[in-house]
Amino acid sequence: MLIVADENIPLLDSFFGDIGDIRQVPGRTMSATDVQDADILLVRSVTRVNQELLANSRVRFVGTCTIGTDHIDQQWLESAGISFAAAPGCNANSVAEYVLSVISLRAEKLCEDDWTRLSVGIVGAGNVGGELAHKLERLGFDVVICDPPRAEQSEEEDAKNFASLDEALKCDVVTLHTPLVQEGDHPTYHLLDASRLAALTADQLLINTSRGEVIDSAALVERLAEANPPTVVLDVWEHEPRINPELVEQAWIATPHVAGYSLEGKVQGSEMIYQALSQYLGLPARKKSGQFLPEPALSKLSFTSAASEMDAARVAIRSCCDPRRDDARLRHSLGMSSDERGQAFDRLRRQYPVRREFSSLKIQLKGTSKSAQDTFRALGFKIKL
């Protein structure tokens, strides 16, 4: 059995090596010739999986080790009798931690000692948005959640927990976590168009870690050049990997689609597709991601009663996730030609440094308050008193 896989999927041999022979190819340039003789195809979000890619192949199972599926023509796969599996929620915690790090940076920039005074509007309450909302609520933030499809499907009482998009866009922080939907009752393509971007002010922070096309990037470039523009953090972009360098320069923080790139998130994606493929083949799924995670480079931090709660939290958060490092790497590529920038964007993702999640770090608290202990627990760190 031949498995053709994106070379950037972690632990391919560990999870799939005893299922079949593995041929690793670059996901961005994967072609019909690459997959023609494959039985199994494993991809990430940079590969368009459709009739053009698979029509003349013998592929019978496609797995994407990602939460998004807009790169997959699921309707055609079904019509062709090809089984499909995704990894919903695999990197939800990773993206939530990225957003928390950005919010901590925003609070610090505003000289705000209590970051929970910032209201947060979450647009899209699926795996990622839901995980972020849960963390923020445990931390004591005022959270406004907008998700029209879920609001429609909820019981009348539960539907009251959802707000309109306009309400969410009034928050101090607006963070986008929607899938890319082109059609239907609730399309998200250019959800934030010129009129909605015009309503955002300099007092607000806009974060996009969902899909680049959820924001009209041309309109955003214009808005950021006008008076009183919002502060913008972008991890996803229209036309990846050939992103707009002008928009990079205008953004406060710009990163190369890596918010979900914690080691735990990537490995969990591989594990979920391994489980789905094992089920498809009728094989026992005995492997777990915990078997393969290495010891983290930083395993423990210690704080005494002299440390303020927020300062300690900032140190711990940024020890694991500091988007400013990724921002610096992306900006370094801006002086290149368009094609070179595209290659650099993919290279930054392919060669992304190991980032571990908060749960990999043990926090020792000596004589600190119960409030500090609760904060670290809510963030997801391991606590030692």
Automatic annotation (TrEMBL):
<feature type="binding site">
    <location>
        <position position="45"/>
    </location>
    <ligand>
        <name>substrate</name>
    </ligand>
</feature>
<dbReference type="Pfam" id="PF00389">
    <property type="entry name" value="2-Hacid_dh"/>
</dbReference>
<protein>
    <recommendedName>
        <fullName>Erythronate-4-phosphate dehydrogenase</fullName>
        <ecNumber>1.1.1.290</ecNumber>
    </recommendedName>
</protein>
<dbReference type="GO" id="GO:0016618">
    <property type="term" value="F:hydroxypyruvate reductase [NAD(P)H] activity"/>
</dbReference>
<dbReference type="GO" id="GO:0030267">
    <property type="term" value="F:glyoxylate reductase (NADPH) activity"/>
</dbReference>
<keyword id="KW-0963">Cytoplasm</keyword>
<dbReference type="Pfam" id="PF11890">
    <property type="entry name" value="DUF3410"/>
</dbReference>
<feature type="active site">
    <location>
        <position position="211"/>
    </location>
</feature>
<dbReference type="InterPro" id="IPR006139">
    <property type="entry name" value="D-isomer_2_OHA_DH_cat_dom"/>
</dbReference>
<dbReference type="InterPro" id="IPR020921">
    <property type="entry name" value="Erythronate-4-P_DHase"/>
</dbReference>
<feature type="binding site">
    <location>
        <position position="261"/>
    </location>
    <ligand>
        <name>substrate</name>
    </ligand>
</feature>
<feature type="domain" description="D-isomer specific 2-hydroxyacid dehydrogenase catalytic">
    <location>
        <begin position="31"/>
        <end position="281"/>
    </location>
</feature>
<comment type="similarity">
    <text>Belongs to the D-isomer specific 2-hydroxyacid dehydrogenase family. PdxB subfamily.</text>
</comment>
<dbReference type="GO" id="GO:0046983">
    <property type="term" value="F:protein dimerization activity"/>
</dbReference>
<dbReference type="InterPro" id="IPR024531">
    <property type="entry name" value="Erythronate-4-P_DHase_dimer"/>
</dbReference>
<comment type="function">
    <text>Catalyzes the oxidation of erythronate-4-phosphate to 3-hydroxy-2-oxo-4-phosphonooxybutanoate.</text>
</comment>
<dbReference type="InterPro" id="IPR006140">
    <property type="entry name" value="D-isomer_DH_NAD-bd"/>
</dbReference>
<feature type="binding site">
    <location>
        <position position="66"/>
    </location>
    <ligand>
        <name>substrate</name>
    </ligand>
</feature>
<dbReference type="GO" id="GO:0005829">
    <property type="term" value="C:cytosol"/>
</dbReference>
<feature type="binding site">
    <location>
        <position position="147"/>
    </location>
    <ligand>
        <name>NAD(+)</name>
    </ligand>
</feature>
<dbReference type="InterPro" id="IPR050223">
    <property type="entry name" value="D-isomer_2-hydroxyacid_DH"/>
</dbReference>
<dbReference type="GO" id="GO:0033711">
    <property type="term" value="F:4-phosphoerythronate dehydrogenase activity"/>
</dbReference>
<feature type="binding site">
    <location>
        <position position="235"/>
    </location>
    <ligand>
        <name>NAD(+)</name>
    </ligand>
</feature>
<comment type="subunit">
    <text>Homodimer.</text>
</comment>
<dbReference type="GO" id="GO:0051287">
    <property type="term" value="F:NAD binding"/>
</dbReference>
<dbReference type="Pfam" id="PF02826">
    <property type="entry name" value="2-Hacid_dh_C"/>
</dbReference>
<keyword id="KW-0560">Oxidoreductase</keyword>
<dbReference type="InterPro" id="IPR038251">
    <property type="entry name" value="PdxB_dimer_sf"/>
</dbReference>
<dbReference type="GO" id="GO:0008615">
    <property type="term" value="P:pyridoxine biosynthetic process"/>
</dbReference>
<feature type="binding site">
    <location>
        <position position="260"/>
    </location>
    <ligand>
        <name>NAD(+)</name>
    </ligand>
</feature>
<feature type="domain" description="D-isomer specific 2-hydroxyacid dehydrogenase NAD-binding">
    <location>
        <begin position="112"/>
        <end position="259"/>
    </location>
</feature>
<keyword id="KW-0520">NAD</keyword>
<dbReference type="InterPro" id="IPR029752">
    <property type="entry name" value="D-isomer_DH_CS1"/>
</dbReference>
<comment type="pathway">
    <text>Cofactor biosynthesis; pyridoxine 5'-phosphate biosynthesis; pyridoxine 5'-phosphate from D-erythrose 4-phosphate: step 2/5.</text>
</comment>
<dbReference type="InterPro" id="IPR036291">
    <property type="entry name" value="NAD(P)-bd_dom_sf"/>
</dbReference>
<feature type="active site">
    <location>
        <position position="240"/>
    </location>
</feature>
<feature type="binding site">
    <location>
        <position position="178"/>
    </location>
    <ligand>
        <name>NAD(+)</name>
    </ligand>
</feature>
<keyword id="KW-0664">Pyridoxine biosynthesis</keyword>
<feature type="active site" description="Proton donor">
    <location>
        <position position="257"/>
    </location>
</feature>
<feature type="domain" description="Erythronate-4-phosphate dehydrogenase dimerisation">
    <location>
        <begin position="292"/>
        <end position="380"/>
    </location>
</feature>
